[in-house]
């Protein structure tokens, strides 16, 4: 047999390794050979490895030629392309001879255990799985299978198969699936063999069809029978059985079978037994495996129902409470919590309809005909992060696919969407171009500002718009504000000199309650408590509110809007998230199911049914809620436990979704008691509430005591997917809960809670009035006009700001009329109130006496539409207008009757283009709910092409890099701004946003969306702080300041300006040293606790299976593995060899000597090759 060939033991091992190494794909650059038992291989010269590979081929073909027809072995093994590995594999699946098969298995095991996973993947690519499967089929098909061979085959198959995604398909191909099931059936009494079979079954189930096939052949029954109660020994077999059962459940058909046969109840019972029995926590792995198995079984509705019916929630709740007591059992808590969340039966929101409580008849559409609103039902809520719809799941490739990669569509300018003649209607919106400034010559006093006009609501303009709206929209103007306030108000001083307190404001909130009309409540209030809030006048606010038209005719003002807000004095750090907040909240949620009798479940507020909050049924110890005021949107409040309330938000008008913004009033509280509030119908899949953001709170009592602040408030804040689903769709995805706890400082206060600092349409109107009143009309050209009327008949204001010319000299007028235009817009998304505060900062600054502002007015004409969606803001919408459209998706072809504000803002821009006055800058202010800081989105052809991987040679494209100037300047001067969050990419999905349309159609190079965080900053001097209105307004000011850099060569410098603007104008030259960022990147690390529950799964690491497989190999098939293993370790220590962590022991029971020696061929023996397989003898 031996033909005189001899190999020293040092040769054979490197032989195979070096052979493999000579294959490029296998060479492992990280140097993980440090763990290899043969480190010198790295230095094996190429020629040597060639020699060795030849030798191996020779050796194999020679040694095996006896058992194989020579021709076949030569053909299959020594083709020039065969690598050593292929030779081994070929031999393995063809061998019938025990010795050589064992040898090959041994070599393979050595090979695979020495390297990294990459080596196994290489083996898979060379047909390793198929070879092992064939070996399995061949060996198992004999009448009395040889388990000395089978066990190592099964062990290798488990290891390799675990890393081969197609192992199931491959197994089906060679009919190995039923073979393994048969083997298992024959060996249910032999724990070691059973375990080996179970592991292989488990890896086969990585293919769903294989799992189904196994299930159809009753594998579930066989495997389940092996999942023994805790009294049994052979725990590794039990663990293997649970894992295999879980793997079988990757097939939904098997899940149905399992639920139908009562296996879920069985698993729960076993889990309980193990839990009870395992008080020392020695079998955590098994208990975890049970939970994993239950997770798989509850993938389908039937499984979840079975778990609940079989008392699973109760069991999990009880067991997890005891797990909480021991640190050792901590690892069981999270899977249990996730399982409870997942199986918690879905409950439709307690509403009669998902549709908004407010509806509005749209022009050309009959009332009551709802647009199909697929958002809720199509399986994915719209994620409306800000400018854009972001798909949370989109990975990098989706993002790149979304990038515009066609140079043509990036550079072509589409035709206008309307005839040029129509643009003449906008001429009157450019008074600065026609105004003759005669008043500059006359000494007449500036026109008296028109408070009267606003207060009385009788100006021509107002009357006109009022009438128009009534005709158009059938919304009757709520012109009764002042009366409502005064008639409902009490005069505190009249009833017994009692001090007015917060409670008095409650009286506004119950219109049913008749009050004595005692006149000047507001005046008294202001007289007694009025504090000075810059640029806010409560009287102006009331007057403005009286003009505001709404679907519901609001008759109540929210106190903070009317009274005004001052930013609090100190910084407000982001809230610390305590560990396991979510867990705690989920336990409380689960208790609702377990102890329903503890739940009050009483509606204490219903937007649609005012009788609720006035009814005597509402107990006095319950909080009172209210939201029927501008921007308010609480639909329903439900008393859950003594200090806990569920809150349901109203959908956007005419829609059945977009719940995220909230604003409501709460009163009747007890001081110093923590109240838990749950907003239970949020839609976004994550929120900054998980990352330090708090809602805002305003206390009337505090305001009256001189602290009129919206403050960040709330503890134990957390945001997670819950068990509520839309009213009409059990199949629809469930909602998210925002939960927070507020401890009110004052007894019987009236407080307001909101998603973010409210800023109503009436607030804008009164602010504009205040601004107009405050500017010096001889210096500042400030005009407020009506761009158009909204659907509800409100006027959409357009503001023009520039400097009046120093004289009427032709030169001055010419300079004025040739100033470049800057167009600013904001609040297209009503839930983004931060955008309004930023806009307020911009307006405030532009009208100020600051020298930079003066220069800006001299350098530019600013056209500002501060609120693109007044109707949405008024009605407390989060995303849409009254037409239920996202107005920032209407820019491509805005409908003049459904999206008038967009239609006419676009018209304004067309007009500017038509007179050759393309704006220098366009910016639309937004808020971003998922990111921190403030940043810009812009448009760049080159950056988009680079990022999209377009083959176009961008070097030949010319692009003005000036689109980055403002962002770079802001990065330097605005503390909240972060250049690193900016990007300048043009996405296809955003082709209809303001930014992209203004850039593409109007050719505005600097066309931006500015996104401001709801939360705070993670860089700069505001790092770790939540933003307040002060910071938002500062951002608006900074944005305007940055415009100065665009005109630094044109402005006239004076010393005052230079000293103020040095920082702004200090432009450096490194405009291109920042890279754009993928705007889909979440800037948050994964949340500490899983927000979703449906994707929860136990991580199944390959190493875990390896370790289990390795533990199944001792010299005998009897019990006593542990001693065996110990012995092995000792022996290795004796040999002075450190056992590599990854070192295999698949064949360790055979390899009592060092594995090298196992295969060594000693020349001393038998005049030739002697394969010293001691275990064979
Ligand atoms: Zn937005």
Quickly describe the structure:
40% of the residues lie in helices and 10% in strands.
Mean pLDDT: 79
User: Ends: how far apart?
Assistant: 18 Å
The share of residues in extended strands comes to: 5-15%
Sheet with the most strands? 7 strands, mixed
Structural class: alpha+beta
* Strand arrangement across the biggest beta sheet: 14-15-17-16-18-20-19
Given as residue ranges, the uncertain stretches (5+ residues, pLDDT < 50) are 1-80, 372-396, 444-453, 455-519, 1067-1081, 1115-1177
Bound molecules: zinc ion
Quickly count the helices.
46
Radius of gyration: 38 Å
Task: Work out the helicity level.
Answer: 40-55%
Anisotropy-based shape:
globular
Number of strands: 20
Structure description:
- The protein has 1177 residues and is α+β, with helices and mostly antiparallel strands.
- The chain is 40% helix and 10% strand.
- It has 46 helices and 20 strands.
- A 7-stranded mixed sheet has the order 14-15-17-16-18-20-19. The chain has a 6-stranded mixed sheet with strand order 2-4-5-7-12-10.
- β4 and β5 (644-649) form a beta hairpin.
- α1 (9-21) packs across α2 (46-64) and α9 (167-173) crosses α12 (208-216).
- The longest helix has 19 residues, at 46-64.
- The protein is globular.
- The model is unreliable at 1-80, 372-396, 444-453, 455-519, 1067-1081 and 1115-1177 (pLDDT under 50).
- It binds zinc ion (ZN).
